[in-house]
Amino acid sequence: MINTLADRIRGLASLFWREVAKFGAVGGVAFVIDNGLTYYLMHGPMSDSEAKARFVGATVATVFSWIANRFWTFRHRRQDNVVREFVMFIIINGIGIGISTGLTAIAKYGMNIQDKNILFAAGVVGILVATVVRFFAYRFLVFNKELDEEPAFSHDHELIEAHHKAKAKAIHAASAEDSADADAGSGEGEEAVKRR
Fold first, then answer.
1. Alpha carbon distance 137, 156 (integer Å)
2. What is the DSSP string of the chain?
3. Separation of alpha carbons 117 and 98, rounded Å
4. What is d(CA 42, CA 109) in angstroms, rounded to the nearest whole number?
5. Which of 55, 75, 105, 169 is most open to solvent, judged by the fewest CB atoms within 10 Å of its CB?
6. pTM score, whole prediction
7. Helix-, strand-, coil-residue percentages of the chain, each rounded to 5
8. For every one of its 196 residues, what pLDDT tens digit does the chain have, with 9 covering 90 and above?
9. Euclidean distance between CA atoms 124 and 120, whole angstroms
10. Helix (H) or strand (E) holding 79
């Protein structure tokens, strides 16, 4: 039982770190897309609207991120309902975009910072905060299908059910033993009555 539990914990940790590594790789590319596009827009076509430039960069990176996470990072966790999955992804990314855009807007309008490099850095900090929020939200809300098909976890149900079956057998054995004792006791009582 302890070895089985230790194997399960090791397997879960391994899966978690694989997902974190893949999520990090996708996030790294999305980070380059987001910041590259934002930097270009801030210093070009949207030079007077830094928050909008951040919004556009984040939106393009979000579309890339959904495709990459769906087909690579969380491919074993994809939901059957693609529309629901995409809507949840968009909502969570809307929150993430709000965090990164919000920090840029707070720096510009709330703190009256005009330096584009500082405003850009505020958005980067926002992206880092939003990334942590996104990972856990994706993992538990968007791509949350059970891992029945993951080879490392194909026996999860057996582990859980084995524990419950063992417990049920113990309870059944205990109740059968009590029942046998009661039957034996009533049999002895009947023999005593017959002898009288």
1. 23
2. -HHHHHHHHHHHHHHHHHHHHHHHHHHHHHHHHHHHHHHHHHTTTTTT-HHHHHHHHHHHHHHHHHHHIIIIITGGG--S-HHHHHHHHHHHHHHHHHHHHHHHHIIIIIS----HHHHHHHHHHHHHHHHHHHHHHIIIIIS----TT-GGGTTHHHHHHHHHHHHHHHHHHHHHHHHHHHHHHHHHHHHHHHH-
3. 20
4. 16
5. 169
6. 0.53
7. 85, 0, 15
8. 566 666 666 666 666 667 778 888 888 898 899 889 999 999 999 888 888 888 899 889 888 988 888 888 777 766 677 788 788 888 888 888 888 888 888 999 999 998 888 988 998 898 888 888 888 887 777 776 655 455 554 444 444 444 445 555 666 676 666 666 655 555 555 555 455 5
9. 6
10. none
User: Which tokens sit at 37?
Assistant: 């596009």
Tokens 């949840």 belong to residue: 88
Q: State which amino acid sits at residue 61.
A: A
